[in-house]
Amino acid sequence: MSPTPVPARKLRVATTSLAGCFGCHMSFLDIDEHLFELVELVEFDRSPLTDIKDVGPCDIGLIEGGVCNAENVHVLREFRRNCKTLIALGACAVNGGLPAQRNHLPLSECLREVYQFRPGLENGQIPNDPELPLPLDKVRPIHEVVRVDYFLPGCPPSGPAIWKFLTDLIAGRTPRLANGLLHYD
Amino acid sequence: MTKQFLLDGQPVPFEDGQTILEAARKAGHYIPSLCWHQDFPPHGSCKLCIVKAAGRHVSACATPAKEGWEVESNTPEMNGERRGLLQMLFVEGNHFCPSCEKSGNCELQALGYEYEMLTPRFRHFFPERPVDASHPDMLLDFNRCIFCELCVRASRDVDGKSVFALTGRGIHKHLTVNAESGRLADTDFSKDDLAARICPVGVILPKGRGFAVPIGERTFDTETIRSKTLKEEES
Predict the structure, then answer these.
(1) Domain B83-207 part of CATH 2.60.120.620
(2) Where exactly are the structural domains of chain B?
(3) 20 to 30 Å CA-CA from B115: which of A9, A130, B179, B203?
(4) A177 vs B contacts (CB less than 8 Å)
(5) Residues on chain A touching B97 (C-beta within 8 angstroms)
(6) Which fold, B3-74?
(7) Which chain A residues touch B128 with a CB distance below 8 Å?
(8) Tell me, what's the ipTM?
(9) Is A157 an 8 Å CB contact of chain B?
(10) A6 pLDDT band (50/70/90 cuts)?
(11) Cα separation of A17 and A78, whole Å?
């Protein structure tokens, strides 16, 4: 007896930007007409593309940006709990990137410099609204907070690199960035 | 009859006194390196040239070839260890490629590409290493130093100035400038020194050049470090 054909199910994908600039998301859109092929294969859960606020059970989670505050930690852990495969997308998620350039400065000094002593600022004070997430003393790459399955470096990774990576993954291959697709800059 | 050893099963001829790395590259086989330079004695600090010779891990740059040896280099095991070494180098410094003027021309980065390093994997140290912009022509960004001592050796042995030195031990080791003030401006360092152009990473940089060649059109954007190294060996 031949096995029952499994009905094709669209993979569910969630994306978010933590301490990132959304440049990786913009680069994701740079896959251009491949977006039409992609929506045949996947559907989006939480993502800036859908505006869904909380991540649900997903096959793939794409994380842009490093971890710079308590909310980032919360969102990242939520993604890890819900996503079968979690991917660090771009330099900041992979190694902290630009936001991590503050790591050699004391956090209080950074905050005072921006909110109290910036030229032209009068009666400045460090914001302390309880709704604001607390910054961490150092910005961390996401693999220092949760287990990460795959890493896609680049600032940002190019559209072709993202497309190659996703198509490998969707087809069940180990993603591989060959032929000049691997860049750290 | 010339002596030979086997590198990944391929016979490599050598002369007495030649190291595994020298003989291999001369025969057109690539063994990676960061701290090795043909004009200087082997330093053996970066360990990227690690190979397994007669069952032992050795630095190919510092180990004389021996007749009949079986040497493993381009194998998943050795390349995996090289990737691990690269990951340790990346987390020990502050290697932020997107803002580095050397990006695309950097040998550390090129080896990351060559050995498909996708993540630094380990926990970052984020060490504090202030830059020295005191010199009129050259900038020192210590964040990227990998302690290969090429600048130390070039300045001492070729330029005759001994501008640079390594100081401290273990994780506190760092590159230092030989002046009472510690500033490059207070030395006789010149942009024409060999030490000014020998850095394999982005520590010693000329001022005023920056991104004159855009990212994407640089040396290792168009060519792998493997093919560039072998081409240079041929010429």
Answers:
(1) no
(2) 3-74, 83-207
(3) B203
(4) 116, 118
(5) 91, 155, 184-185
(6) Ubiquitin-like (UB roll) (3.10.20)
(7) 104
(8) 0.93
(9) no
(10) low
(11) 13
Contact A177 B96 (CB under 8 A): no
Residue B119 touches chain A, beta carbons under 8 Å? yes
* Nearest residue to A175 (alpha-carbon basis) of A114, A80, A63, A86: A86
Residues B50 and B57: their CA atoms lie apart, in Å, by: 6
Per-residue pLDDT of chain B (235 residues; tens, 9 = 90+): 789 999 999 999 999 999 999 999 999 999 999 999 999 999 999 999 999 998 999 999 999 999 999 999 999 999 999 999 999 999 999 999 999 999 999 999 999 999 999 999 999 999 999 999 999 999 999 999 999 999 999 999 999 999 999 999 988 999 999 999 999 999 999 999 999 999 999 999 999 998 999 999 999 999 999 999 999 998 8
Q: Which residues are CB-contacts of B114 (< 8 A; sequence separation ≥ 6)?
A: B32, B224, B225, B226
> Cβ distance A100 to A74 under 8 Å?
no
Q: Return the amino acid letter for B110.
A: A
Give the Cβ contact number of residue B91 at 10 Å. 18
DSSP B16: T
Amino acid letter, B178? N
**CA B218 to each of CA A98, A185, B233: distance values in angstroms, whole numbers, following the listed order:** 22, 12, 20
Query: How high is the pLDDT of residue A2?
Result: 56
- Taken in order A27, A96, A20, A148, the sign of the CA dihedral is positive
Tens digit of each residue's pLDDT (9 = 90 or more) over A78-126: 999 999 999 999 999 999 999 999 999 999 999 999 999 998 888 899 9
Does the domain at A11-100+137-170 match CATH 1.10.10.10? Answer given as no
- Which residues from chain B sit within 8 angstroms of residue A100, using beta carbons? 96, 124, 126
| Inter-chain residue contact B221 with A104, CB threshold 8 Å | no
The answer on pLDDT for A134 being more than 60 is yes
Q: What does the domain layout of chain A look like in residue ranges?
A: 11-100+137-170
Tokens of A185: 């800059």
